[in-house]
């Protein structure tokens, strides 16, 4: 098994350990049914457009459709807020140096759940032991984009010929507004 391949299925014994209760309703049956009629074609691993996008996990964002991209064109690194974390950097470095990407876009979005305060998030999660987690909440949307573009640049781990830009995606209109030019 290569560096960038993963087992498709979680071993049943392991999966059983994650089951909270036997009456839990999951999407899994529907997912497996849908997957029966889905076929992938072999394609190269490195993104065809040498592009790597960092964005939020928000369910309203479809990066391929919104930005005119096809399967195989780009890496999309997603987390809550599209923030540049240590793990984002881990993925970006592999994207750039193992898989040849040269253009890096940081895209945050309007009405993001992380555009609040860490305290507000922790309050919403009351009862959970999350005191040690920095949810990387932000106040100013454009500034958070500038900060995360700068965080990528500051790693000094991007290729010398890399282009880095940042923008804000409007989840209500689908429009991307550039905040940091390449
Ligand atoms: Zn978001």
Q: What's the short version?
A:
The protein is of the alpha/beta class and about 180 residues long.
Rg over alpha carbons: 18 Å
Low-confidence stretches: none
Taken in chain order, the helices and strands follow as HHEHEHEHHEE
User: Looking across the biggest beta sheet, what order are the strands in?
Assistant: 2-1-3-4-5
The total count of helices amounts to: 6
Number of strands: 5
Looking at CATH, the homologous superfamily is Carbonic anhydrase
Domain count, please report it.
1
**In CATH terms, what is the fold-level topology?**
Beta-carbonic Anhydrase, Chain A
β-strand amount = 15-25%
Question: What is the CATH-assigned architecture?
Answer: 3-Layer(aba) Sandwich
Distance between the termini: 37 Å
| Ligand identities | zinc ion
Helical fraction: 25-40%
Q: What characterizes the major β-sheet?
A: 5 strands, mixed
Residue-averaged pLDDT: 92
CATH class group: Alpha Beta
Which structural class is indicated by helix and strand composition? alpha/beta
> What is the approximate shape?
globular
Explain this structure to me?
The chain is an alpha/beta fold and 182 residues long. The chain has a single domain, classed as Beta-carbonic Anhydrase, Chain A. 29% of the residues lie in helices and 17% in strands. The protein has six helices and five strands. It has a five-stranded mixed beta sheet with strand order 2-1-3-4-5, covered by helices on one side. It is globular. The structure holds zinc ion (ZN). Zinc ion binds next to loops.
């Amino acid at each position: 098994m290569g560096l960038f391949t993963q087992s498709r299925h979680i071993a049943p014994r392991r999966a059983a350990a994650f089951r909270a209760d036997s009456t839990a309703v999951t999407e899994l049956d529907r997912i497996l049914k849908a997957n029966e009629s889905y076929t992938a074609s072999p394609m190269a691993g490195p993104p065809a457009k040498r592009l790597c996008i960092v964005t939020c996990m928000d369910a309203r964002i479809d990066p391929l459709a919104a930005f005119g991209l096809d399967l195989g064109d780009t890496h999309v690194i997603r987390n809550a807020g599209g923030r540049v974390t240590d793990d984002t950097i881990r993925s970006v470095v592999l994207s750039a140096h193992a898989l040849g990407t040269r253009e890096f876009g940081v895209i945050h979005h309007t009405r993001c759940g992380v555009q609040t305060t860490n305290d507000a998030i922790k309050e919403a999660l009351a009862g959970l032991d999350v005191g040690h987690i920095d949810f990387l909440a932000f106040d100013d949307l454009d500034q958070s984009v500038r900060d995360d573009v700068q965080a990528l640049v500051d790693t000094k781990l991007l290729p010398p010929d890399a282009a880095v830009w940042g923008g804000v995606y409007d989840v209500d209109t689908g429009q991307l507004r550039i905040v940091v030019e390449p």
